[in-house]
Amino acid sequence: MRVASNIAASVQQAQTRERNDINRSYEKGVETKRKDDERLSNISDKHHNDKVNQIKEDIKNGNYKVNLMATADKMAQNLLNLQ
Fold this sequence. Notes:
This protein is mostly helical. The protein has helices spanning 2-61, 68-79.
C-alpha cells in the first residue's frame, strides 16, 4: 500500500512540475507577444507621426499635391471591400 502511495505522489509531483512548466512557457509567450506588439505600435506611431509632419511641412511650403488617381483607386477598393 505504501509503494502505491509513493508512486501516486511521484506521479502527482511530475504532473504538477509539467503543468508549472507549461504555464511558465505560456506566460513567457504572452509577455513576448505583448512586448512585440508594443514595439511595433511604437514604430507604427513614429512612422505615422513622421508622415503627418512631412505632409504638414509640404502644405506649409505649398508643395503638397493630392494624387487623384491613387486616392480614387483607394476609395474604390474600400467601397468594394477589396482592401
